[in-house]
Request: fold
Amino acid sequence: MNKIITIGREFGSGGRELGKELAELLGFAYYDKEIVQEIAKRTQLAEEYLHAIVENHTGIPFPITVGRTLYHHNHGGEYLLHHYAHVYSEQANVLREMAERSDCVIVGSCSDYILKDYHPVRLFVYAEEEAKVARCRANADEHEQLSDKQLRRMIKKVDKNRARHYHYHTGQIWGNRTNYDFCINTSAAPLKEIAEALAPLLKNIKAER
Amino acid sequence: MNKIITIGREFGSGGRELGKELAELLGFAYYDKEIVQEIAKRTQLAEEYLHAIVENHTGIPFPITVGRTLYHHNHGGEYLLHHYAHVYSEQANVLREMAERSDCVIVGSCSDYILKDYHPVRLFVYAEEEAKVARCRANADEHEQLSDKQLRRMIKKVDKNRARHYHYHTGQIWGNRTNYDFCINTSAAPLKEIAEALAPLLKNIKAER
Reply:
């Protein structure tokens, strides 16, 4: 069985960077945006729309482009629920194929829950609010510059949506320690040092536990 | 400023063993039972009684020996509240003196909260239920052998009391990631390997953060 490391993360906490660093140190494949890209290919749905469903579960109270068609939210809740279920099922297929292919690090997408039969090592990455604001600012494009207050509001909203999405599909509480093996506050130490400490530990954990 | 590592832990999770291992690897002092012993010296209260207050906050609905005197719970709630406050204040003094003395690892006793001005690295240690039952069984004296069901009930009760005690004094939720820097599920890997991974990382974290 391959070794799978899943990463849940607060927005702006550096979870993706930590995942990339770990994948590099361990020589593992790394999947993040690739998940949505793969679902998009299979379902012919737009990536932006999929991203909203797979990660944020926003309820999408605005006109959306699905494939080449413009849908309005007044198509009703039933239509959307059908869509969620369809996308989640495809998401599960994509994640399982990735897990079968090789050792890998997978970010987000309820991967800790969907892949539980593969006994992944489940990380959850979080940070102090000020550190998340600073990271979001550093990663933003020039034209995306928001005030600290706006960034704080955005971080809160994205995380709230992630928690709702996670709970919707897993019945579990997002970020609750009982769903993870290691919860890491990236405000405590540089990402590189955290990755270097974790890599040998994760390497030693057997896939068949 | 000295480097302080605090450890909150679920009963049976191996938090004390991990703390001891870390203290040894880092060459730090290690405080656990010493805290209650020191409070006992200063307050002339019995260790057993102090342990119930400092760690478990059980409400103590039975006759207790305080120093040399037998008190009954019908002395009333006010008396007990006064006692809690007195002991907590002495506990804070003891912890601060330990923190001033040298680099150290401190287990339990709301140390992460009481010593927050020392910017401790705050660990929380937990484990899967089966692993906790097995550890409790392995650590128990022969005459203390309980059934798995009894052990499960005891683990739940001790942790419930710890959570209540922590919340009473800190207003925070015990074991909630936001109060900690690293939350560690000891079911994921051997304690020794976890300690060896963490030690260099913790060593690098500056005390003045």
